[in-house]
Structure formats: structure tokens, C-alpha cells
Amino acid sequence: MKSTICVIFILCIHSLLHCQISVQFMPVNAYFFSADQMWNFQLLNSSKKTLTGKLEISLFRNSSALIKSITVNNVSFERGINVFSGAEKNMAIEHFGNDEISNAFRNTNILSPGMYSWCISVKNELQQTVVYSCNEINITSFSLPVLQYPNNGAIINTTMPVLTWLPVMPGTIYNINYHLHVWESGKGPALKIGGDLVNIVVPTTNFQYNDLFPELTIGKNYYWNIEAYSGDYYLGTTETWTFALGSSPLAKEADVEEESYRNIGDQTTNAEYVANNQLKIAYINSANDSLLNYQIFHNDSLLFAIEELPQVLLRNGRNLVTLDLLSTGKFTSEEYYTMQIDDANGKQYVFNFKYVEL
Fold first, then answer.
1. Are 336 and 352 in contact (CB under 8 A)?
2. 354 exposed, middle or buried (CB, 10 Å; 0-12, 13-18, 19+)?
3. Sheet with strand 146-149: strands edge to edge
4. Which sequence spans correspond to the domains of the chain?
5. Alpha carbons 180 and 228: distance in angstroms, whole number
6. In terms of CB atoms within 10 Å, which of 35, 166, 217, 244 comes out highest?
7. How many Å apart are CA 297 and CA 339, to the nearest integer?
8. Each residue's pLDDT tens digit in the chain (358 positions)?
9. Cβ of 29: how many Cβ atoms within 10 Å?
């Protein structure tokens, strides 16, 4: 019995002595550390044989609070440098912590700013730790771009303005690109008439409006904002600003005339609502939807919704929405229509209205 124990002990010592593994951590993005970057390391097996065992990758905050762990069983660590294939990554078992940072990392795939410990562990078939190594990483915050010109509410005198904005900071962030959106709306930024006039990706912090895009018109309101990306990582969106062309005042915003808006959800049975060129509704966004999910049907064909109606952006709470039905060219005066709204909570609102072209 003693000789058997001695043999096992000698084999274990032999295994530990001859399986020499070291960890080499590779550089990571200090602003946008993603789950994929937890694999940015190499294992060097400097022994003369292959080791089979378990790989554990862990991310901690304050050296103890687990953010995420990745475990892969039955891994073969060959002689020399070991990196890990997609097949091995697909075999990984993931586990997240239960605090706010862990939940944010799970949902956004980007680690919140702060100091973290990134640790690699390899165990052999006897569950003995062959190597355990950690690297401290500092995830840094950043600022979104800020719109500069045209100023919010400005009236400009050129059909070819140069739109400018301040960059994402700091300037060391990799591969910054800006998605510029410009659209027309006479009744607030929530409505996009015919979609974007400009939807383009630019690497700089300015854009010269030109003849490749629809001409800007005197007396109309235009809205614009910027989405910022680092490579494929979405960073965030600026405020939405408005400007107009020429000397005419900006078109009156919808919320000036609240009494003319039909409250959705509290309509009276058989009450008739008349939409004079425009359909005006007051809608409470209780589901926090980003877009109004609506359809409009002609009362003679309730199975087929009218297509290519304007997109309506929503904010939280109460929204005053003005749909310019006249400009769509899809409605007939003195005819009756039905509007249907569905929200993310499964609620549905339906009401009838009469369209009148003035």
C-alpha cells in the first residue's frame, strides 16, 4: 500500500515538474474591453509533452468580486505557444456575477470603467493548478461628440452648410467614425418625413452638405445628430439639434397646441375625430418604445395597411405626435380610416378618424 502511494506521489511531482506553462497577456482596448478580449492571451508550454486539463479565465473587480468566468474542460495544451480556436471557445461554459457591473457586461458586452483583475488558470487532469496568473487592467471612460454648427435653433443662409461637431475624447481611442443623420420635419424631431436626407459615415468631425443629397429648402426645419462608433462598437448618440434655411422663423412645434391632440387610450365609443391634413395624437409611451409601432387602414380594406408611412421616434412619457397625412399622398379627403398602435407590453390601441384635405 505504501509503495502504491509513493508511486502516485512521484508521478504527481513528475507531472508538475515537466508541465511548465506560462501566460502571456496580449494588449486589450482600454476603452471598450469586450468579452472577446478575455481570450487575448497565449499559453506557452515549455515542457516536452502535451498537457490535458482545464482552462479557467476570470475577470474580477477589487480582486474578489467576480464579473465573469469562462471554463473550458479537456483542453490539450501542446508544446510551444497555444492560442484557442473558435471550436474551443464554443465549448466554453460562462458564468456571470450578480452585481450591476456584471449585468451591464452581460447586456452590453462592454466593461464599465474601473480597475479589474484578469486571471488565467490551468489545471491538470488531477485538478492540480499548473499555472495561475493575473493582469491588472484599467478601463477608462470617454466622452461622446458634441454638436457645434449649426447651433440648435439657428437660421442659416446657405444650402450647403458645413456641419461640425467636437470629437469623441480622448483622441487615442481606436478607429473612431461618426454616423451623421440629417432629416426634415416641420413638426418636431420625432417625425422623419421620407427618412433621412443624409445617412453617411465620416471619419472626421465635419461634413460639407453637397449636391449628392436632397436640396435644403427655405422655410423647412431640419434635424441632425451623430452616432459615434469605435470600429464596430457603438459608443452613443449626441443630442438632436434643429436648424432652418433662410429668414423665415422655425415652424411651430406641435406641443404649442396640446388641446388639438387626440388622447390615445381614453377615446369615447363612436366619437368621430377629424384629421385636417394632419393626424394629431397624444400618446403615453408606457412601454418605453423607441419607435411608434402603428398601422393605418382604410375602412374599406382593414386587412391591408397603408404602406410607407413616416417613421415616428418616441421618448419616454407623453408624446405629442403630428402625422402629416397630406404630404404622403396616400389619403383621400372625406374618407374614414382606422389607426392601430401596438406597444412592447402587448397593449393595442385602435381608433377611427375622418381625413379632410383643406
1. yes
2. middle
3. 146-149, 162-166, 206-208
4. 16-139, 146-245, 254-356
5. 9
6. 244
7. 6
8. 444 444 444 444 444 444 588 999 998 888 888 888 999 999 999 988 889 999 999 999 987 899 999 999 998 898 999 988 887 888 899 999 998 889 888 887 888 888 999 999 999 989 999 999 999 999 888 888 899 899 888 888 888 899 999 998 887 787 899 999 999 875 555 566 667 899 999 999 999 998 899 988 877 888 999 999 988 878 888 989 988 886 444 434 434 445 577 877 644 444 568 888 899 888 888 788 888 999 999 988 888 899 988 888 887 777 888 888 998 899 999 999 989 999 888 888 888 889 999 8
9. 20
| DSSP β-bridge partners for residue 155 | 244
Tell me the helices (H) and strands (E) count for the chain, helix number first.
4, 26
CA distance 32 to 67: 15
CATH 3.10.310.10 at 16-139, yes or no: no
- Taking CA atoms, 337 is separated from 304, 319, 330, 333, in Å, by 12, 22, 11, 11
Q: How many CB atoms lie within 10 A of CB 196?
A: 17
Report the C-alpha gap between 103 and 349 in whole angstroms.
Answer: 34
Fold adopted by 146-245: Immunoglobulin-like (2.60.40)
Which residue type, as a one-letter code, is found at position 13?
A: I
Q: Which fold has domain 254-356?
A: Immunoglobulin-like (2.60.40)
**Contact yes or no for 176/203 (Cβ under 8 A):** yes
Assess whether the region 16-139 and the region 254-356 belong to the same CATH fold: yes
Per-position DSSP letters for 300-317, written without gaps between them: T-TTSBPPSPPEEB--SE
- Within 10 angstroms of residue 132's Cβ, the number of other Cβ atoms is 13
The SS3 of residue 6 is helix
Strand partners, 318: 284
What Rg, from alpha-carbon coordinates, does the chain have?
Answer: 30
Task: Classify 341 as helix, strand or coil.
Answer: strand
Handedness of CA 159, 160, 161, 167 (dihedral sign): positive
182 vs 208: CA distance, rounded Å: 12
